[in-house]
Amino acid sequence: xxxxxxxxxxxxxDVLSMSVxxxxxxxxxxxxxxxxxxxxxxxxxxxxxxxxxAAHLAAPVSGSAESRDQILKAFLIATxxxxxxxxxxxxxxxxxxxxxxxxxxxxxxxLQKFAAKSGVDLNAAMEKSYSRDQKTREEGLxxxxxxxxxxxxxxxxxxxxxxxxxxxxLNLGEAYGVKPYAAVLDRQRADVQQRVRDFLxxxxxxxxxxxxxxxxxxxxxxxxxxxxxxxxxxxxxALFVARDLPEIFSLRVSQDPATKDLLVKLANFxxxxxxxxxxxxxxxxxxxxxCQFGKRAADGEVKNLSNEITLNLLxxxxxPTPMPLSTLAPRAQRTERIPLELIVERIPAALARVPQSSSxxxxxxxxxxxxxxxxxxxxxxxxxxxxxKSYQKAK
Length: 395
Fold this sequence. Notes:
Structural class: alpha+beta
Radius of gyration: 23 Å
Largest sheet: 6 strands, antiparallel
Order of helices and strands: HHHHHHHHHHEEEEEEHEEHHEEE
């Protein structure tokens, strides 16, 4: 039987891993490189180190009544930690790492009871799926996957299960690799494969069509074994429905053809006001402005893409505390202009940070606007690939 520290670490990992991982991934994505003119290292928060340490302690949890009590206690500890980390005040926890909505310990208990009525010991399956022994782990994970067909409606039990599937992909994919995880999924029946992939893709399905298609392409490129090119969300799966949802808050970045300035347009389509971290109070966006270089091929497609490079200077890279919040009224829009001359000044430093052997001729600009002060929710806008010469000083 595991000691209290290991059990707590296991649950902390499940509850926090996705939240923290996405928080750090978003931070790295929105500030892909260090600010221009500095070599300062990007430091992760102490909470991240705690979760990474928990990953090494993660192990199967005994199914005894005593250990289940310990699990619930550990879950409460994790909930407190998550509320502390995100500034949440409610008893339930929810974050972008929790794509299935607000959950708490009662939801897990309800799911266990639902599984028991269906003749499935879900705790035992989860215990095996986190085993250090490969054969045991694959057996438990397969049983956990097959349980997905039990759900006939997208109720709270289905949402709780979806969160556990999401966590298992992140935790086991990180600990043992994505390919072994996908291999277990590929050995299941076709309807089980579809259902599990639908659960994994669901968070992207609730985005507007344009963002959803882009997210699907990104997932296929990053995890082809889990999201093969032939995967279609909700295909033959009555539990999920592919739908086009209206966009609530949009961010668009485009080029003014006449001046080559960049135009940033924010729009709030919802009936409620939307607060956001205001990185647009200066002529150049603060701590969220990036570019990416590429080479246009004969077919017109831009290939050989560079990493995303920050266009922020050191003073702009680190937002002030507290971060300035602005409000966009219902149905309101806001447009800002980023002058060409201010972009041209920054391009040489950005080019200096990519391989000199690459003869780039195209560039696109990316901007993220965070929808809360914790940097856990954000909207990203980007231009199409533009002629790089338009943003370089004449020689």
